Amino acid sequence: MTERRGERPPVPEALPFPIVDAHTHLDACGAKDAADVAEMVDRAESAGVTRVVTVADDLAAARWAAQAATWDPRVWAAVAIHPTRTAAFSDADRAEIEELARQPRVVAVGETGLDYYWDYSPPEAQHEAFRWHIDLAKRVGKPLMIHDRDAHEDIYRVLDEEGAPEKVVFHCFSGDADFARRCADKGYVLSFAGTVTFRNAHAQRDAAALIPSCQILVETDAPFLTPHPFRGRPNEPYCAAYTLRALAQLRKVDPAELAAEVNANAERVFDLPAATPREPGGSER
Questions:
Q1: Phi, psi of 88 (to 5 degrees)
Q2: Does the N-terminal peptide bond of residue 111 adopt cis geometry, omega within 30 degrees of 0?
Q3: Which of 21, 84, 97, 124 could form a disulfide with 240 if both were Cys (CB 3.0 to 4.6 A apart)?
Q4: How many CA atoms within 13 Å lie on the side-chain side of 241?
Q5: pTM here?
Q6: Could you tell me the pLDDT band of residue 85, with boundaries at 50, 70 and 90?
Q7: Share above pLDDT 90 across residues of the chain, in percent, rounded to a whole number
Q8: Segments in the chain forming alpha helices (H)
């Protein structure tokens, strides 16, 4: 496996029902222009991952994501300033993020939240930015996409204090079963990345097994968090198909059933048009 660490995993057989990669970073995967985006999303579509939400973590990435979403009808965007980049978050930055968030192909405000693992931005700055993004999501009427690293209780508390938007997505959910229950009780949606397939991810697997199917999304967070058994190799949106199948096995349900449910969830959360189901053999109707 060592000699293959720089290689992408093989593209799997297409899922029996198309799904959305609810959180990816096409620019960080290496896409620079419309041709790169089309090639990457073509690869995803061949695995049954027919649409993607490409997510920003700084202002330059937010501009790029919003533009990339106009290049290909299978691409949508989310914009925000990542909590680790909030040490210097100016009024001009806020104004531009808000302008981008109002664009029609931007379907969420994110990723925003709190990150206590890295020390790139002080907690005070992170909290201020997080509260601002919560307010922005409510003002523009779009879902809030949460980044939560070692900050479960503070994020839960701040959402209560500010009043959560109508739709909240915990990207790359990393909590345990108890935190998952509490989030589900609030109506929050939990998005699972390749980490849920890792052998040591017992808490996340327990969480993924118990929450209602109507509150699950699947994502890659590509180019990071490649699913098992390809951990450490470059991730791309097509790898969401591996995670979907792993979740179906974990929840003891048919992959087609789970794919249809998580796709419907993505359409509801991000207000996307209805997908075209695939005929047996992988072709679209």
A1: -125, 90
A2: yes
A3: 21
A4: 23
A5: 0.94
A6: very high
A7: 93
A8: 34-46, 59-71, 91-101, 123-140, 152-162, 177-185, 202-210, 240-251, 255-270
Q: Which residue is listed with tokens 């909030």?
A: 86
Q: How would DSSP label each residue in 11-68?
A: PPPPPSS-EEEEEE-TTTTT--SHHHHHHHHHHHHHTTEEEEEEE-SSHHHHHHHHHH
The label of the residue with tokens 């959560």 reads 164
pLDDT in tens, 86-135: 999 999 999 999 999 999 999 999 999 999 999 899 999 999 999 999 99
Measured CA to CA, the distance from residue 208 to residue 205 in angstroms comes to 5
Would you state the structure tokens that stand for residue 40, as one six-digit string? Answer: 């990457």
Token representation of residue 41: 């999303």
Report in angstroms the alpha-carbon separations of 116 from 33, 120, 123, 152, 153.
34, 9, 8, 10, 12
Residues 7-24: tens digit of each pLDDT? 999 999 999 999 999 999
